[in-house]
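Section 5.1 Outputs to date
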Amino acid sequence: MISTFRKALYILYKKDICVLCAILCILHLFLAPWAFYFSYDFVTCYHLCAALFTVLMILYSRTNSPYAMFMLMDVETMVYGFVMTAKYGSPMGAEILSIGIMSYLFVLVIISNKKSMSAILPITITTNAVIIMLAFKYKNSLSTATPVPDLFYTVHNTACSLAGLLSILFAAMQTRQKIKRYHLKTKNRENYLIFSANHDALTKILNRRKFISILREYQSNDAHKNSDFAIAIFDIDGFKKINDIQGHDCGDLILHDMAQLIKQHLPKTTVFARWGGEEFIIFFTSNVKTAHRVLEDIRSTVDLHPFIFNKKPVKVSITIGLSNPGNPDTFAMQLIEADKNLMYGKQNGKNQVVTTGDTK
């Protein structure tokens, strides 16, 4: 018996919500017949139950969701109403308690956001004690007459209605904020997935798949058929040696920093992407002369830029192959031409910009 009692106390200490529901049912089903037997009206029964409910809800609201507590009270009240109607032919105040549950939700949400209940709990207990004393004061006689003045009911119903309205408004605002946060979180997640699908994870610039997609879209647009364009492919000179000597962390740092550096020096109309490994590709919506001037500036910037790894400078240079679309070749042909120019530059000195005319 003692061990069972200790186990029950332990469960109560852990604030199991199912045990709380059972306690509320027992208290409610006990108080209702008791109030009925001593000729208290249903409003008195409601106040007696609500007083205990409020105290228990405050005690348990710190470790349970206020919305879950609200559902618990709602279910318990419905069970109570069914039982009382079946046994005594009257819901014994269940309808009033159901209306007042919205005000409980309001109180619980407010209290659950507070870290300290040292002031709230004594005030609540004192207020409920006063309500219980008023309920005893207006105890019904054995006759069918009700001595409770109409003002008592008016004030009570008005207070419940206002509390319920405030609760609905507050719950609506809370729900609206949660929906907004959910939509924002979903939108951010969607944007992240789109960004991840179209960008290289290391350098944060466009990836090969997205670059090809942009080129195909540009090629299919009739307005661009007679427009100037140029394609450049470049890679880092001696990148394998950098990885072997300095390590892959150094190589990753250079890839990232160089991509961001070049991105800052490119016109906004260009498309810049990581082609694969240490290779990068640029699509210019301008003529070859303009592209060559921009690429030479980029090559010089990279050559002079102090790349630092472990507080030590790392010398980096790039070789660039630029296509020269003097005729309406396809983009595939321009890519092949740019790649051939890149290979020529790698085999003939590196750290340079090579166009088709340079290889003849």
